[in-house]
Design brief:
Layout lengths: L3 H18 L10 E9 L2 E13 L2 E14 L2 E14 L4 E5 L1
Antiparallel strand pairs: 1-2, 2-3, 3-4, 4-5
């Protein structure tokens, strides 16, 4: 499994991207909902969903990613999700992952 360090680096970069997009300073002002295909080596292996919703003075940014892949005869399914709630002024209220 000499590709394991490369996969770990790829996974870490995906997770950093998901967290960066859900940060309050980088989030769009308007609410949104976006879907993405997750690819590995040119093959679709999963999906990612991002959403931002405003209710009253609270803005909730959330993301969920699921993907699956096979290595030799062993397979793995990975799911990553997180949510960040803040006020419209940017004050953090809660975070979960």
């Amino acid at each position: 499994m000499k590709n394991r360090p490369r996969f770990a680096l790829w996974l870490a970069s995906v997770l950093v991207g998901v967290l960066a997009l859900s940060r309050p300073g980088l989030a769009a002002v308007d609410d949104f909902e976006r879907w993405y295909a997750v690819e590995l080596g040119g093959n679709r292996v999963g999906w990612m969903h991002q959403k931002q919703a405003t209710v009253g003075d609270l803005v909730t940014s959330s993301s969920r990613m699921e993907f699956a892949f096979n290595r030799d005869q062993a397979g793995a399914k990975i799911s990553v999700s997180g949510s960040f709630v803040e006020t419209k002024a940017g004050k953090p209220v809660s975070m979960s992952s």
